[in-house]
Structure formats: structure tokens, C-alpha cells
Amino acid sequence: MVVVDGQGIPIGAQLASAQISEFRLAESTLARVRVPRGGRGRPRKRLRRVIADRGYDSDGLRQRLWDRGTELIAPYLRTRKQRCFEDKRKLRRYRRRWKIERTNAWLQNFRRVQVRYDRILSVYQGFFHCACLIITLRHLCN
Predict the structure, then answer these.
(1) Ramachandran region, residue 41 (left: φ > 0; alpha: ψ -120 to 50; beta: rest)
(2) Which end of the chain is more exposed for a tag (fewer CB within 10 A), N or C?
(3) In what helix (H) or strand (E) does residue 49 lie, and over which residues does it extend?
């Protein structure tokens, strides 16, 4: 799970087993995010909005994020009958999701991250964080 900012720079990540559903990891991943302020002060912990795909469509997740002051922008599943939070104006922001997919593609450029050779999670996590650091440094230098 990777959380990126509006430019596609990774600002938070969590590694877990591939058998856990994504929406179950969303809250713990968002709790790790610290967004630096423009001036002085502590980093912000609460995000204004989160853009996610259909896999995050859960009423419980929407409500818990709403209670924290975060707006979840995710399209509903097609099988969903009751769509109480649907607003097409907010889904226009969903078109920016390509930046998240671009960041995933950048991470796939690192072969050691793409193909997990390491059996130890801490070693793999170290290479994953190094890949995120290189992506951030590339963006800062341009």
C-alpha cells in the first residue's frame, strides 16, 4: 500500500501479505502519513481527501474516514444497489488517479522491488523504502 501526494511522490507506505483485502489496510496506512506544512508547525496527520479505486468501496471505511475529517473519493461497485454518498462532481477528482498508477509504475522499475527475492520482510522493506527515496529525490532534482 502506497500513499502519494498530488504529484505522485510517495508520502506513506505499508507492506503486508497479499492475502489481506486492501480496504482493511487503508486506515493503518493513512495513520502513518505525515504531511509537512508549508511553514512552521507539526506535520498534518489528517488528509483532506483520499482518492482510491473500487476496491475501497465500503460504507464502514467511508464513515470512519469521514469521522476523521477525510473525504473518500472512490466509485461504487457496480453491484451496489444503494449509493447514498454518490456525487458525480466529486468523482471528477477520480480522473487524477493516473498519478497513483504512475507511481506504481515507477516502483516497478526497481527489479528487486518488483520481483520479491528476499524472504525476510525487513530486508524487502528496506529496498522498498530506498526505491521510494530515489523516486522522491528524482522529483526534487527536476
Answers:
(1) left
(2) C
(3) strand 49-51
Q: CA 77, CA 95: separation in Å to the nearest integer? A: 17
- 93: DSSP letter: G
Name the helix (H) or strand (E) containing 11.
Answer: strand 10-13
Decide the pairing of beta strands 10-13 and 2-4.
antiparallel
CB-based contact 46:68 (threshold 8 Å): yes
Give the model confidence (pLDDT) of 54-84 as tens digits: 878 777 888 888 898 888 888 777 666 666 6
In residues, how long is the chain? 142
CA atoms of 106 and 64, how far apart (whole Å): 31
DSSP alpha helix (H) spans, 38-141: 59-67, 88-91, 98-108, 111-114, 121-141
